[in-house]
């Protein structure tokens, strides 16, 4: 399943890395593309969107 989210408070590469690591804790096989310019995160995973949103929020970011 492909999930596309906006994360307005993802400002830099370290933010993108933290978000990617949070998602990989849920699904270590997930493919994550985080673009700090567009503030978009694209995830290929078998985990539910709500779980992904929660993981990103727990990492300190606000997915929309």
CATH architecture: 2-Layer Sandwich
Number of domains: 1
Net shape: globular
Q: What is the strand arrangement across the widest sheet?
A: 1-3-2
Report what the structure shows.
The protein is α+β, with helices and mostly antiparallel strands and 64 residues long. The chain has one domain: Alpha-Beta Plaits. Helices cover 38% and strands 23% of the residues. It has a three-stranded antiparallel β-sheet with strand order 1-3-2, with helices on one face. A hairpin with a 4-residue loop joins β2 (31-35) and β3 (40-44). The chain is globular, with a radius of gyration of 10 Å. The model has no long low-confidence stretch (mean pLDDT 97).
SSE diagram, text form:
Blueprint: E1 2-6, H1 13-26, E2 31-35, E3 40-44, H2 49-58
Antiparallel strand pairs: 1-3, 2-3
Helix pairs in contact: 1-2
Summary keywords:
23% strand, three-stranded antiparallel sheet, Alpha-Beta Plaits, 64 residues
Please outline what is shown here.
With 64 residues, the chain is of the alpha+beta class. It has one domain: 2-Layer Sandwich (Alpha-Beta Plaits), CATH 3.30.70. The protein has 2 helices and 3 strands, in the order E-H-E-E-H.
């Amino acid at each position: 399943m492909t999930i596309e989210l906006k994360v307005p408070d993802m400002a830099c590469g370290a933010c993108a890395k933290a978000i990617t690591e949070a998602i990989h804790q849920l699904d270590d096989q997930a493919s994550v593309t985080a673009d700090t310019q567009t503030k978009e995160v694209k995830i290929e995973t078998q985990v539910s969107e709500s779980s992904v949103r929660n993981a990103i929020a727990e990492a300190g970011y606000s997915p929309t």
